[in-house]
Each structure stands twice: as C-alpha cells, then as structure tokens.
Amino acid sequence: MSEIIRVENLSYIYNQGMPDATKALDDVSFTVEEGDFVGIIGSTGSGKSTLISHFNGLNRPTSGRVLVDGRDLWEQGADLRSFRFLVGLVMQYPEYQLFEETCARDIAYGPRNMGLDEAEVQRRVREAAAFVGLSDELLEKSPFELSGGQKRRVAIAGVMAMHPRVLVLDEPAAGLDPEGRDTILSQIRDYHEKTGITVLLVSHSMEDIAKYANRVLVMHHAKIAMYDTVENVFARAQELLELGLSVPQVTQIFLKLRQMGLDIPADVYTIPYAVKTIQKALAAKQGGGANA
Ligand SMILES: Nc1ncnc2c1ncn2[C@@H]1O[C@H](COP(=O)(O)OP(=O)(O)OP(=O)(O)O)[C@@H](O)[C@H]1O
C-alpha cells in the first residue's frame, strides 16, 4: 500500500489575531494509506470538520502542511482545482447544495465541470447512481421531490461521479433514521470495497466506526488522541470513555467483565470480533465433543 495523505504539524486558527481566535487544530500529524477506510471521531468542537476541510483546500493551514498523493496543496504553482477532483468532499447536509432541475443533472455537474465528453458523463452518472441505489425514475425527478435520505444519496453520487481517489464524508448519515443510516453507510462500504478508494468518514457513532472503518482517528481538543486499527483503539475503551466518547454496549460489557477480573482478550471489544471469538469457542466445543 502507498501513502495517499500526509498531514505534517498542521495547525489551524480561526479568526487569527482577533479576540475570538480559536485554535481548531494544534500540531496534528498523521498519514493515510491508499485504500484505507478511516473513521474520524471526537467530541463536539474537537476539530474534525476543520481537519477534513484541509484535504481539498477549503481551508489553508495556519502552519504545517497537507500533502495529497505526495503534492502539497498550497505550494507555489499548485492547482487547487485538481485537488478538488482528487479528493471528493461531502459536507454535512450536502442536500442543501443540490440545485439542478433533475437528480441526473445534479450528479452530472461535477464530471461535466471536469471537461469529460457527454458519453463519459452519462456513463458515470449511471454508475454512481447504481452505487447509491438511485433508480432511473428517481434520476429524472427534481431533487426537491425526494426524501432526505434520497437527496443525500444524490449528493454523494455527484462526488463519486468525479472518480476521486479519496472520498471524505462529514457525518453522511446525520439526521437519518436507523434504516437510512445503515443504507447509506453500507453503500459507502460497498463502494470502498469495489473500487479500493480511500475513505475518511467523520462520525459521532462508535458503533458505525466499529462496523465500517479499518482505522480510527480520535480527535480531542484540536489534537489527535489516538490513531490506530479499530481493534487497537477499542482495546483502549476505558480511555475512550474518559475522552467523553460513548463506546458500543458490547464494548462496555466486555470492559466491565475485564474489570471484574475475567480474562477477556481486548480484541473482543467490537461486535465482529466478539462474534468471531464466540464462533471459535463453539467450534472448539463441537470439536471437543466429537473427540470425547
Ligand atoms: N467558522 C468558524 N469560525 C470560528 N470558529 C470556528 C468555525 N468553525 C469551527 N470553529 C471552532 O473551531 C473548533 C473546531 O470546530 P470543528 O467544527 O472543526 O469541530 P468538530 O469536531 O467538527 O465539531 P462537531 O462534531 O460539532 O461538528 C470549535 O471550537 C469551533 O467552535
């Protein structure tokens, strides 16, 4: 795997020099490997949205630098437009950015802007619509006629249609009911698996992160508190709780049992690992039974 994002000593101050100056990022450094699915979590105001807004140049570092595919976004002569095609950013509530007459035209907006020929634009619209489960009938409707979840999917498809190498999503499931959340997040996971694209997903839900991401970046007061695999981060469940983050119930149960002195390996702290561990134990029991 090769590195796709490098963040070096990144700091960002809103309203610098003013009485209300806020340091939203404080000397943040990390790298992302191409093909990773990184979940970004942290309490309100910890700097998550500010961080991701640096990946396609929406914000300029106060100090430090951000490299995408080895190139510094802000170095002399860098073409910011090219970074916007390389990194697709889906903001919170992107449905407010839909403005075309039909969903198909909205999804086509990005690829058309890239100067692609019309046949390729149409191919990409169909491909992206299929990824997020939008029917031909819906494509011909006005975005304003759709439900909240459908509008969100149109907005995500519009970014996918640009074929970015990195897809960054800020709370893509915010405000949706549980079914809508699962639909959107599963579609993003399937897209990640089929295309190998790098995904950075900001979420308030540890459950979602445990389910979909393979790495987790935990933000706390403008700094990185943890950055590791899902298993290793969940193995530090007690610290997550101390950072004010709610961890999945299964994690809390295992943590309690461990604190009560039971010998529970830390990697059963997430549901997939708990299931694997139970399956292993059952298999061992059945094997043992056959031998008895
Ligand atoms: N446009 C802005 N002007 C001034 N301060 C801002 C601005 N946007 C964010 N901040 C401040 O910067 C800090 C980090 O905010 P940011 O939105 O990046 O956090 P977050 O982790 O994404 O929060 P949330 O989970 O609530 O979305 C907060 O203290 C916030 O109040």
Automatic annotation (TrEMBL):
- PROSITE patterns associated with the record: ABC_TRANSPORTER_1 (PS00211), ABC_TRANSPORTER_2 (PS50893)
Query: Which keywords label this protein?
Result: ATP-binding, Cell membrane, Membrane, Nucleotide-binding, Translocase, Transport
CDD domains cross-referenced by the UniProt entry: ABC_cobalt_CbiO_domain1
Q: Which Gene3D superfamilies match?
A: P-loop containing nucleotide triphosphate hydrolases (3.40.50.300)
The UniProt entry, under SMART domains, shows: AAA
Q: Which residues form the ABC transporter domain?
A: 5-246
EC number(s) on record? 7.-.-.-
- What's a GO cellular component annotated to this UniProt protein? ATP-binding cassette (ABC) transporter complex
What residue ranges carry the coiled-coil annotation?
none
EC primary class = translocase
Q: Where in the cell is it found?
A: Cell membrane
Q: Which InterPro entries does the annotation name?
A: AAA+_ATPase, ABC_transporter-like_ATP-bd, ABC_transporter-like_CS, ABC_transpr_CbiO/EcfA_su, ECF_ABC_transporter_ATP-bd, EcfA2, P-loop_NTPase
UniProt GO molecular function = ATP binding; ATP hydrolysis activity; ATPase-coupled transmembrane transporter activity
Q: Which SUPFAM superfamilies does the record cross-reference, listed alphabetically? A: P-loop containing nucleoside triphosphate hydrolases
Name one matching Pfam family: ABC_tran
- Look up and give the membrane topology term: Peripheral membrane protein
The record, for PANTHER family, names:
ENERGY-COUPLING FACTOR TRANSPORTER ATP-BINDING PROTEIN ECFA2, HEAVY METAL TRANSPORTER
Function text: ATP-binding (A) component of a common energy-coupling factor (ECF) ABC-transporter complex.
Q: How does it assemble?
A: Forms a stable energy-coupling factor (ECF) transporter complex composed of 2 membrane-embedded substrate-binding proteins (S component), 2 ATP-binding proteins (A component) and 2 transmembrane proteins (T component).
Which family does the record assign? Belongs to the ABC transporter superfamily. Energy-coupling factor EcfA family.
* Protein name as annotated: Energy-coupling factor transporter ATP-binding protein EcfA2
